[in-house]
Specification:
Length: 196
C-alpha cells in the first residue's frame, strides 16, 4: 500500500474521530423527576451503519470501557435473546458520591431493540429500552428511555443534578462510541481518489 494512501486514510479517520459529536445530526436528552423516580428520554440521529449501532449497545462486557461512571459490566448468563447482566458504577457530582450495583434482565430483539429490567441491586426500579431505527435517508435513530428509582437517599438538589448529569454523559458517550466504531469501518480509498 502506498504511503500517501495510508496517510490519507489515517488523516480522514482522525478528522472523523475528532468531530464525532458534530456528526450526530440530532442529539436530544431530556430528564425529569417525579415521585422519587427519574426518567430519561434521549435520541440521536447518526449517519452510521445499523449493525455498528447494534454492536455497540449490545457490547455489554465492554460498556465500562467507554461509559463514564460505569466501573464494570458483565454478562452473567445468556440464553437465546435473554441476558442477565451485572453492572457497577458510581453516581457523583461535587461532594455527592453513590455506588451503584444492579443486575439487569435483558431481552434482545436484534437489531432493533433492547429492553432491560432491574432484578437486583440498589435500584428499587429500573426499566430501560434502547431502540434502533434505520431511516429512509440511510441514517440511524437511536432512542433510549428509562425510568429508575434508587434504593438510597438522593440529596434534594445535588443528587438530582448528579443523576441528570450522569444519564446525559452516558448517552453521549454511547453515541460517540457508535460513531467512533463506525468511522473505523471506512470504505477503502478508491483508486480514483488515490490518483488525484
Amino acid at each position: 500500500m502506498m504511503l500517501s494512501t495510508l496517510i490519507a486514510r489515517w488523516t480522514l479517520l482522525g478528522l472523523m474521530c475528532s468531530g464525532l459529536s458534530a456528526v450526530a445530526q440530532v442529539l436530544s436528552i431530556e430528564t425529569s423527576e417525579q415521585h422519587e423516580a427519574f426518567t430519561v428520554n434521549a435520541t440521536a440521529i447518526m449517519p452510521v451503519r445499523l449493525a455498528t449501532a447494534w454492536s455497540v449497545i449490545s457490547d455489554y462486557d465492554h460498556l465500562a470501557d467507554f461509559v463514564p461512571g460505569m466501573h464494570s459490566s458483565r454478562v452473567l448468563e445468556r440464553s437465546g435473546n435473554q441476558v442477565l447482566l451485572e453492572q457497577t458504577g458510581s453516581l457523583g457530582f461535587l461532594f455527592f458520591q453513590q455506588p451503584i450495583a444492579v443486575k439487569l434482565a435483558v431481552t434482545e430483539s436484534p437489531p432493533e431493540r433492547i429492553v432491560a429490567h432491574a432484578v437486583g441491586g440498589n435500584l428499587k426500579q429500573m426499566d430501560g429500552r434502547y431502540t434502533l431505527e434505520a431511516m429512509p435517508d440511510g441514517k440511524v435513530r437511536l432512542s433510549y428511555s428509562a425510568s429508575l428509582r434508587p434504593d438510597f437517599a438522593v440529596p434534594p438538589v445535588i443528587g438530582r443534578l448528579a443523576v441528570r448529569q450522569v444519564l446525559a454523559r452516558q448517552f453521549k458517550a454511547l453515541v460517540q462510541e457508535i460513531q467512533r466504531r463506525d468511522a473505523m469501518h471506512l470504505p477503502l480509498v478508491t483508486e480514483e481518489v488515490q490518483k488525484q
